[in-house]
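Renewal narrative, Specific Aim 1. Our central claim is that a sequence can be written position by position from structural information alone. The example that follows is taken directly from our test logs and has not been curated for this report. It begins with the structure tokens describing the chain, in the order in which they were read.
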């Protein structure tokens, strides 16, 4: 079992990952800052949605969401369509130009990561990818398309299945 000092050290490292996220944001194309980039990613991941749902996913006020959507729509990356279920509402949909922008953003992120981690071994990259995936799974992804706690945007804790390294027979 990990000691409190290990959890404190881990908490410091996780908090410091903000620097990695900021570096990745700086790698975005100049015409697509972080807010609109996240909007495009969420609409891509979740499909058409109303502004209110997007605000929930972003966990920000509708006015902030509206500014990011306006930026993306002005550049042709998003379109606003009448909602067939409610004529007063609009659905946001990614356009082909929006998909192109997402591809450019993904390429820029991969290039930056590849350059920064060029001296890492394949085994180290695999270990980091596996552990980050496990961390994300265990914490749950609050932006997941299903499993949200109603009204909170927080997902129910994931049911963790033991992995070989977790079993007593393989414990140190």
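The sequence written for that structure reads:
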């Amino acid at each position: 079992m990990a000691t409190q000092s290990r959890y404190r050290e881990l908490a410091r490292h996780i908090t410091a990952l903000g620097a990695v996220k900021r570096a990745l944001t700086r790698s975005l194309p100049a015409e697509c800052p972080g807010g609109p980039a996240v909007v495009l990613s969420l609409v891509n991941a979740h499909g058409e949605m109303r502004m209110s749902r997007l605000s929930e996913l972003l966990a920000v006020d509708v006015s902030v969401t509206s500014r990011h959507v306006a930026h993306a729509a002005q550049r042709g990356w998003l379109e606003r369509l009448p909602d067939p279920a409610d004529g007063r509402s609009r659905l946001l949909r990614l356009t082909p130009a929006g998909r192109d922008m997402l591809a450019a953003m993904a390429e820029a992120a991969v290039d930056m990561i590849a350059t920064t981690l060029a001296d890492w071994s394949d085994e180290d990259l695999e270990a980091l990818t596996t552990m980050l995936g496990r961390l994300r799974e265990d914490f749950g992804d609050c932006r997941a398309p299903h499993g949200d706690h109603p009204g909170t945007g927080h997902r129910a804790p994931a049911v963790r299945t033991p992995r070989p390294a977790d079993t007593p027979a393989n414990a140190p």
